[in-house]
Amino acid sequence: MSSIVARQHNHGSTGGMSMTMAAGVPGLFYMQQIFWAFVGTAIGVTVIANGLNKLLYHQRISAARDNLIAAKPKSIFFRAHATTAAIVREYGYYSLPVTIRKTQIYFAPLGPSTILIGYLVLIIVCCFYGFNTEDVLQWEDVGYRAGYIAVCQLPLIILLAAKRNFIGYFTGLGYERLAWLHRWIARALLFTVVIHAGFFLREWGKYDYILIKIKADPITQKGIAAAGVLLWIIVSSVAPIRGLSYEIFVIQHILSWLGLAAATYLHVPKENQIWLWIPLALWGFDRLVRAVYLTYNNLAVFHLNSSGFLACKATFEPLDDSHTRVTISDPPVKWEAGQHLFLACHVLAPLSSHPFTISSIPSDGKIEFVVRAKKGATKRFFKYAEKSYPSGQNSTRNSGRSVLIDGPYSRIRPLRQFDSVVFIAGSTGATFTVPLVRDIVQQWKGLGQSRKSHFDPPPGAVTRYIRFVWVVKQSSAINWFASELERAIRDVGNLRHDGHYVGLDMSIYVTCDENMTSGQASTRDSSTSLDVDEKRLITSEVRDASYSSRECHCRKILKDENAIVPVCDCGSAPITRAANSRTSSYYTNSLENSRSSEVDNRIAILSGRPDVSEVIRGTAECALGEMAVVVCGPQGLVQRTRNAAAAVSDDRGVHKGTGAQGIYVHAETFGYA
User: Is 312-409 assigned to CATH 3.30.160.20?
Assistant: First the structure.
């Protein structure tokens, strides 16, 4: 027994960790190479897919001027590509809904779930291949192998975490779309560590040696410390805990990562320390690049139009009782519709930086955010807006507070390459969809952004039709983007008058179903279709919250937009009188304006919930080429939209000989990446 124990877990000995495996069993370093060969292949396939998407984009835009069906694949290669994409999307978008006590929840979509299952299978194979786990003499070898596979995953985790990372650049995915994979691969790392420790403990337990080893072996102690830090990182990164205080989470997450790197460095043998230097170098590179951009974007000395020390000043305007509009005039950065920035105002919210979607487009000459006041920095922004924003006609607007910006970030496939585009937004999700709608309209008008390089396609758009759906909890929310939406409707009307074959339909649904509007609400689904005798006259008046729930239709699915039902605000919270009479007056005036204001009559304002499936199906049946569905809102709305797109695609036999065209879905959910 002593001979067995003497060689166990001797990380300090080169011979111990580099020991020769049994005959026919691959070596430790070889299995690390196998692991990265599979990971590299998966990344390579994604890079190729991104390259094909870019090629398709160029082809469509180049053919758009002379071809109304440029979004329809013609060559054998691209028809095969479209068929493959349709099959993958129908499978990957779908998420199994489960109803528990009238509350509907969704499992993860099949696409991401399959990726994670494949990754776990890869880890298990790399850890156990060639071993007989029933042979006690091989338990130690399994433990060593699992340790090697665990440590070589660290570079991948850091690559996926970086805001400006190489994987995202070559695959066309923003860091926020890789964040879920970053978290789950970290959890897979913990799973690998459990295998690593479990087989050593299994062998030590056989000889009643566990406590002796833990007390006497420094390498084991450092390994336990590293595993403990990793476990803390995983637990503290779970969404409910992460959301308690985003500022504290970020700080402790960075410190915990550095602690994990230090403990692991002391635990692993010298020949494996390269797997720690690589992620540290990648993390340092990301921080350096972000620091350079941060310095250039925010110091006034680099921008001729700026004065003072910092280049950006922001004004804060209260929109209603829980939302703030933040505006930065003459911004020093360039951005595209659909991107977001990290915003920090350390005077109001020290040591905090939050990501907010840019709700304006470059031609506006300003950056705007619509921010929902929750807690922390967003609540402080709102309170400052209450106090500082002028409410009277003779009041002068505050010059603004100095702010820091980091970004812009995010990538989305250019939407002007699709024949038709459906936008579905819940509440503040419109900050993402409205600028994208306006960007396509700008392309129709010939005012799109100029080509950045010779590799970019020419201006113009393949898109013929836009369907815009916005779900809000209060009708007063319409005022957030009323002028922008009306301008888009007028522009499209003028284009049609001039003979352009384009169309834009807008519908705004007022509902108190928080599954459609709130990022923290349950996904309760007790809706039914509207009966004919329930149709009422549409009115712009806000219904009193005490109105009979029997006559309130705002939770029901509205299948027929020609159905006439009242618009209500039964989900609106009563406005409480603020201590500051000026602020209270501002809210009262804003609400009265929202009640009496009229939007363009071409924008339908409806009571109820949209039938997402029918919205997508109606657009798909008229599409002459591939269409896109863009959804931004709470998880329930997003997953319903994905499922609806998959179902419509499957029902219509997309690219399977029926002539039906493909449906691409881009989804954004509320919350921090």
Answer: no
